[in-house]
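Input sequence (352 aa), recorded before submission:
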Amino acid sequence: MRRPSGPACVLLVCATASAVTLPFAVLAQTLTSPFSNHYTLSSQRDVLDSAESLVQTGELDAAEVAFRRVFESVRADQGLFHEAQLPVLDRLLATNLARQDWEKFNYYLDYHRALASRLHRNQTIRYAESLATGADWHQRAALIMADEHRTWHLIRARNLIWQAVSALEQTPGSQARLSPLLYQIATLHYYLTNVASLRGRTSLEVRTDRPLRLSGWSMSGNEAERRSYAVGQELLERIYRLHATGDGDSHDLAHIDTLLGDWQLLFGRDELARDYYFKAYRALRADPSATQLIDQLFGTPVTLPASYFSTPMQNDTSALSAMNTSQGPVRPQLTDDFFTEDHRYELDHASQ
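Predicted structure, token format:
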């Protein structure tokens, strides 16, 4: 199927003095001719530095032209499949994201994924990291989009993380890298169900890879929510087993119990949330060295879903945190007396 990935190739824009005004001599010289795209390595660095300055001053269109010309120069100098393109691609993605030029953003994101896959396909860890990076860009796009476009980017992010998980599962010694990715998938399920307005049109998830609403099969809102809850619960329990059978200490296990409590709270299962929080709190109170962690988990407000506590991969759920609003759920701030019988039904009030 055809994706919204932009044109098959990037057309060089002929920028004239009337189109952009550049305050840097090195950029002015490069933009004189639309075909002057071959720089020495030193010139490439100069143009990149100047383009970064343009970004800082808000001249995003001029910065995009400069980044794109350096990108073409790197490809010409070092080859179509050289990893030196990746840092420039990152700047192109960031600039086009800020410009909200979705055609170019999607094109460069597809190019980034294809290039990273070619470069790292025989290096599992780097391949998984490149997939996680692609997912992070999709999440960042979802933050500033709405409706089916947001949904599409969240689904693409989730699919890329699943690919990273599948790659790591086949590699001995990679188990520790799985936990943050599994938690990220769970979090994406929550946002797809509760934030991206997927209710009633979940056919988008399986019928197309384009950000379009389709008629046809869909599940009800309640069914979609039950499905997301079950998937997230299974993933969080898997994370717990990974730590319980690996090198995870009691602090890690208590923290995962806290995340399991969060999951119940996010889906309105307050009594189950209380049980998980109590289990985590009781285990940490028995450890004199856990005072700081108790305060981190229960003594200060934590907007849910919380970020994962350690991130061996390049990204985590932090790119999604801006989707939470001031009315979003907050982990209750707990003390010793919270778990007494007198406070048994107060979790609803504590989480407001």
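Checked by second reader. The chain has two domains: 1-120, 121-350.
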